[in-house]
Structures are given as structure tokens and as C-alpha cells.
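ok trying again, last paste got cut off:
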Amino acid sequence: MERQCVATIGFFDGVHRGHQCLVSQVCGLARELCCPSMVITFDRHPRQVLHSDYVPQLLSTLEEKMSLLTAQGIDRLEVLPFTRELSRMTALEFMRQVLRDRLQVSTLVMGYDHHFGSDGGTFPNYVEWGRQAGIEVVLARELEGEKVSSSRIRRFLAQGDVRMANHLLGYTYSLEGEVVSGHQVGRHIGFPTANLQVRNDKLLPALGVYAVRVTVSDGTTYGGMLCIGHRPTLNNGSELSVEANLFDFRGNLYGQKVKLSMVDRLRDEQSFPSVQALQSQLKQDAVQAKKVLGTL
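nice, full thing came through this time. structure:
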């Protein structure tokens, strides 16, 4: 039988500084009680099960979330499949059947306004349900200073403010995907690009041009600039493209997975009167991006 453990539970989208503070408290309490620490999360957004046509806009994919949580130093990560059956469980049923009997949770650390179970409830309710289930429910300490939440980070990204989003995350927001064949116009105007295929459930920041660090499949990182947009100067129609120009890179990235770490936003997407005007602006963008990245 697994040893009894100290745990917390949540969706943890983005694993931001608030989540990191919570997980740190779980680890600290587990050390005090000489038992393992555990984080419990879900394999999909609950609304995907409750509303079949819902496509979430995630700060972190499941794989990214698992990597970020594991890096916090926990002893065990439990990913529960979120099903309709699970969604119908009351908080007390979930505490007894899943937390206590299946996962051996003896202490549960919770934020004051967090809730789970079909009947919801306030923090004092969870304390009482925990008592009935044989689980001690402990109030988490809030992160000091400014408010950090996944929804607030999403709002900053929707505005293109990746600096503020990164500040609240505690790390650099990134996009990952496979390099696929694009329109191949960039190479003809002196700015060859890697055209990324990004998952449709991953949140894209606002349209525009960004300074980025690009990590390719062999682990090498290059400075670069990223354009998220519809390429209006090139009459790209309504198709949205995610294209990165890597500085000082020579080679072929087709079929490779790359990671774009977003450092700062340079400008809005614009339509230019000619390809020459676009070229001129891209040269200015590259200079600015290198300054932001500290490579100029």
C-alpha cells in the first residue's frame, strides 16, 4: 500500500507563480510530516467533458503542465482522467473514494476559494467533508503581492503583453510545434521562416511581431523574431500563420519540433504598401529583436 501523503488538487493551467507557491507549501508540509508530497491534476479541461464542442485555450498542454509540476520537486504527480462519472461525484464522495481510498491522501492543502465536486462548497465545507472522510484539510497561504491567476495571464497574452505574462508565470511563455511547409515567400525577401503548426487548444498571444528564443530539436537555442498573423501584405487571406525567423541559422527544420520562448512584443501586425516596405520593416524588427535579446 502507498504511504499516506500530503496533496493538493487543481487544473493548474500554466503552473504560474501562485501554483508554484501552493506546491511549495505542500512539499514543505510533507517534509514536516515525513511523508510524500503529491499533486493531483486532470488530463483535460473539465469543460471539454461537460461541453463536447468546447476547445480550451490553454497556457500549458498536458505534457508541459506535467513537466512544470514535476520540476517543482514533488514526490508524485497523479493525472486523473476527467470523465462524466467523475464530474457527478460530490466533494465528499471524491474525498472518500479517490483521495483517501485510491490515492492515500491524509492531508489536503487548498486555497480558500478553490472548489471541487458536483456540489461545490466553501472552505469550511471542505474542512467538514474532510473530517468525515478522514482527511485533514489545510488552508494554503496566499502568494504575497500582486494577484496571480491563469485568467489574468490569458488577458495579458491576449493583449500581446508577454513581459507581464512571463512575470506572473515565473518563466517564459512558449509555443511548441512541428515545422511544416509554408508559402516560402520569406526566403525570397531575405527572411526565411520556420512555419509552426501549433495545437489549436494552446493559447496564441495577440497578432504581431515578437522577439523570441528558438530551441531546435538538438537543444541549440537561437535568437529570432516571430510573426503571428495573416500576412496582409502578401494577401494570405484568413489563414493564420505562426512563423519564426531564426538569426544566424543555416539548415532545414522541416519535420522538426521547435520551441518558441516569447520574450517581448515588438509591434502590431501591419499591412505594407509593397514587399520592399515589408523588407525594410523586417530589417528594423530584426535589429530591435536582437537588442531585446541582448545579442546586439
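cool. DSSP finds nine helices and eleven strands in the chain. The chain has a mean pLDDT of 92.
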